[in-house]
Amino acid sequence: MRGGRAFGRAAGWTLMMGLGGALSAATWTVSPEGPHSGLKAVLSAAAPHDSIRVLAGTYAEGTVTIDRPLTLLGVGGPVIDGGAQGHVLVITAPQVTVQGLVITGTLVSNLQDNAGIHVDGVDDVRIVDNELRNCFFAVHLSNVRRALISGNRILGDPATPETRRANGIHLWRCTDAVVQGNLADHHRDGIYFEFVTGSRIEGNTCRGNLRYGLHFMFSHRDDYADNEFVDNGAGVAVMFSHSIRMTGNRFLHNRGGSAYGLLLKEINDSELRGNTFTDNTTGLMVDGCNRVHAEGNTFRSNGWALRLFSNATGCTIAGNSFIGNTFDVSTNGDLMLNTLAANYWDRHLGYDLDRDGHGDVPYRPVGFFALLVERIPYAIIFSRSLFVTLLDQAERVIPSLSPAALKDDRPLMRPPHG
Questions:
Q1: With a threshold of 0.85, does the pTM exceed it?
Q2: Is 263 exposed, middle or buried (0-12, 13-18, 19+ CB in 10 A)?
Q3: Cis omega (within 30 of 0) for bond into 35
Q4: Is it the case that residue 416 has pLDDT exceeding 90?
Q5: Is-contact 106 82, C-beta < 8 A?
Q6: What is the distance in angstroms between the CA of the first residue and the CA of the last residue of the chain?
Q7: Cβ partners under 8 Å of residue 348, min gap 6
Q8: Which fold has domain 3-356?
């Protein structure tokens, strides 16, 4: 099931609840001035499907639990402070909406997954337009169906050491989730999916996270689209998953000794379309993948645009643009069971006598120096020297080291897009 249907279901129960329960539902108001000043007391007194408005102020009541279906709505940015006692807000009932709150004060622990908002084993939860400040985990869901996590600002402290940071949005064993329009800033991983199926990640910004902007593990039939991953330890890692669609994302400035815009590790039957990779140490790394189709992507000003390992099979790299990269393609072996087809290479100096838009002779994007650096990383210090340039040209004219199959038989003469 794709994310659009997940969103429809997540919203559907809200409409039904409004039609069926509007006549009996009550609205409560919590305010520092009273008459209701205690959030826990109102949550205990409210009936299922009531609404609770929380006015501006600071509410420091330790861990707060929502154990019945209702709407908790912040007005004016009220602060819910957990006082470092554990979780801040715990949801144990289905059909709960939490919106407009500022949440802080989780307990940092290496033994427990303490979170600003913790949801376990319930369905149809909506977490919308909140701000979570300096939480250990910010939003943590496990065994949840049809969750909507939308429009939240999840802000960590860049001065916090790695041992005191956890993930911004963390989903474990969830289905039909929609994660959209959130900012995840300065956590360990911005967004983390493990055993999550049929879900969608759309329009989020993940920046300044220590490890990954987005991290997939054992998650299948998921989409992520139109997200931005910038200045993370690494942009995105998708591992041990299948049937993943990755479209319209921007991987920007993810730099470091082992950094990349996107790592695909043992991914099967997936597609990568219309993405932009700019100024990453490695734009795209493909390791142990089968039948990945990459089309219409732009690789610009990266160290390595594409590292296509020889243990990948049946992958197709077609209709992409490679512009201004130090190395367009690199590999670590001779066996190459993948296809390069009709890409634009700015280093291609061939000709098009029949004017069909494609070069008349094959182009080999792997140079001698790229192969040398793959085997001897310290050789990178000779990059851009005249001697290296001559060796690369010689390898392309009379290939002796690069895999015979690693060539583009019909290189484009002009970029296919932007």
A1: yes
A2: buried
A3: yes
A4: no
A5: yes
A6: 32
A7: 359, 363, 411, 413
A8: Pectate Lyase C-like (2.160.20)
